[in-house]
Write a structure and sequence with these properties.
about 50 residues; about 0% helix
Amino acid sequence: MPRDLAILECTECKRRNYTTTRNKRTMTARLEIKKFCPHDRKRTVHKETK
């Protein structure tokens, strides 16, 4: 199964807020998405962690 679970971590507060899935075959780099952080109460960049 090529889809993998990705945990997204806020770059400012370092908390793990979101989970999503990604295709390992087509997206080999780590995800980087701008999402709302409930702790900072603003939109920040969230990066994929292990």
